[in-house]
Each structure stands twice: as structure tokens, then as C-alpha cells.
Specification:
Blueprint lengths: L5 H12 L3 H6 L4 E3 L2 E3 L4 H4 L8 E6 L5 H6 L5 E7 L2 H11 L3 E5 L12 E7 L8 H11 E14 L5 H16 L14 H8 L3 E15 L1 H8 L3 H4 L3 H15 L9 E14 L6
Helix pairs in contact: 7-11
Length: 280
């Protein structure tokens, strides 16, 4: 029987308390790959799926079902979503109803038959998972030969100079408040070499591209956005107030003449094709 790690326990708690936090942050903000514009970082994934073709599509870490909802506009798709948060899945069910099969399970042990899935997608979830090599292995197992895998993961927490300010204050305040770090699995995805090694055995045609989700916000608006992230969530109410005051004071110097800070989320999209030989 599996025992949840510290990271998994925290993630379940956070998403049970704050279902929909990820889609609120990314769902309505345009994303850019070079000059290519997408309606959102979720659309960076849906754009990869060929329209009009019947395909079974699996969403790893489906959260409140935002990606599944976008995919549900295509009646030819058979949809499956998995997540470890029951609260997120409850919201997903309200979004998509019986259009998608939803499973409260880990991505490391998928309740899906081998070689039955055409597409595996994941939005801002893969880098949080324990044992990412096992997740990639399970994805390879359930995919058909020639099946598509694509995941949007984090690359840089904040774009622009505000990142350095936030990172410095975070390091200081974590130390002052005695907050113990939580190790998520995503460190293995930070270099192209590591990503390539992960996919070597069962995938081909690996492509990694950088996606930017830029926005201009006031320091106060940015702080409200940060409060909905794992970084700030673990501070005590008093610790958050102290952090907020420091952040607002220093971040104001980064604002342009219109009072807004130019920043955003830095993401990466990983795409690969399942090898033709399922015994690879």
C-alpha cells in the first residue's frame, strides 16, 4: 500500500483547500511561443491534438478539469482525467460531467490498460510529482505506438527583475519563519539533458520549447497572485503579513510609469512521441 510522501500530502491538502487555483492563475492569460500566440498555456496543449480524429486522451493531474473542459468541445475525443485531490475532481465533475472518466489516483500507477491511449497531456502538474521517471514510464505503458505525450511545466517562477527580488525575500523569510522546504520532483526537469534521458527509452521526436505567459500588474495585484501559490501558502498569517509588507515596499521600485510591473510566468512545453515498439 502506498504511503503519501511529504510533498504529496501537502499537495492534497493545498488542492483540497484551494481547488481551481491552477486554472485561476493560467486559464485566461495568453501564452506565447516566440511570436505564436495561444489563448492560454492550456491551449498550448490542446493545439497539439489533431481535430476530427477519434482519440483517447488522458490528462495527468487534471485538477478542476479546465483542460478537459477545453477538450470536451471535441466530441470525437474520449477523455480520462486523474488527480490526487478529491476536491479538484469534484470541481472537474461539475465542469465536464460524464464526458470524462475521472479517477482519484496517482500518475505513477494508472488504472488504464496498456496501449489504449492516443494522447497523454499534463498542465503544470508533472514537475510536482514524485518519481517522475515512473510517471513517464506509466505514460509510455498506456500510450499506443506513435502516441503523443506533452506536458507544460514550470521554467521560471516569475519573469523579469521581480523574480530576483522575490527569490531573495523568500529565502530570507523562509529562514526567519523556520519553514522546512518541500522537495517536489521537478528538479529532474530543469535541464534538457535530464529531460532527454527521461524519454530516451520509450519515446522519440522529443521537443522542448519555452512558453511565456506575460502580464502587467500592480505590486498589490501581484502579491494577491503569489498568495495563491505554494510558496506563500505555507507561511503563518503573521508571516504572510510581514512578507507582504516587505514585498510591496521593494516591488514598488520595479513599477513602470503606469504603476504596473512587467512580469509573468515562465513555462516549458515538453513533447514526445511513443516509440513504435511497445517493448522498447
Amino acid at each position: 500500500m502506498h504511503t503519501n510522501s511529504t510533498a504529496e500530502t501537502y499537495l492534497i491538502d493545498f488542492h483540497d483547500r484551494c481547488p481551481g487555483a491552477t486554472s485561476q492563475a493560467f486559464g485566461d492569460v495568453p501564452a506565447f511561443f516566440g511570436k505564436q500566440r495561444y489563448d492560454s498555456s492550456y491551449a498550448c496543449l490542446t493545439a497539439l491534438i489533431e481535430e476530427g480524429r477519434s482519440q483517447t486522451t488522458l490528462d495527468l493531474g487534471c485538477g478542476d478539469g479546465h483542460l478537459l473542459h477545453l477538450l470536451a468541445r471535441r466530441p470525437e475525443l474520449r477523455l480520462i482525467g486523474v488527480d490526487i485531490s478529491s476536491a479538484e475532481l469534484a470541481k472537474a465533475h461539475k465542469r465536464v460531467g460524464d464526458v470524462a472518466t475521472l479517477c482519484n489516483t496517482r500518475a505513477q500507477t494508472l488504472p488504464v490498460e496498456s496501449g489504449t491511449v492516443d494522447v497523454v497531456l499534463s498542465h503544470m502538474a508533472l514537475m510536482l510529482m514524485d518519481d517522475i521517471p515512473q510517471v513517464i514510464g506509466e505514460s509510455a505503458r498506456v500510450l499506443k505506438p506513435g502516441g503523443l505525450f506533452s506536458a507544460v511545466v514550470g521554467r521560471r517562477f516569475l519573469l523579469g527583475p521581480v523574480y530576483d527580488l522575490f527569490a531573495r525575500l523568500m529565502e530570507e523569510q523562509v529562514h526567519i519563519n523556520g519553514i522546512q522546504p518541500i522537495e517536489f520532483g521537478g528538479s529532474i526537469l530543469r535541464t534538457s539533458e535530464n529531460v532527454s534521458e527521461l524519454f530516451t527509452r520509450s519515446f522519440t521526436s522529443l521537443a522542448i520549447c519555452e512558453i511565456d505567459v506575460p502580464f502587467n500588474v500592480s505590486a498589490q495585484q501581484l502579491w494577491q497572485m503569489l498568495c495563491a501559490t505554494y510558496s506563500i501558502d505555507r507561511f503563518s498569517p503573521q508571516g504572510k503579513i510581514k512578507f507582504r509588507d516587505l514585498f510591496l515596499h521593494e516591488a514598488s521600485s520595479l513599477a513602470n510609469s503606469d504603476g504596473l510591473i512587467k512580469t509573468g510566468w515562465g513555462l516549458r512545453r515538453i513533447t514526445a512521441t511513443r516509440t513504435a515498439d511497445l517493448t522498447a
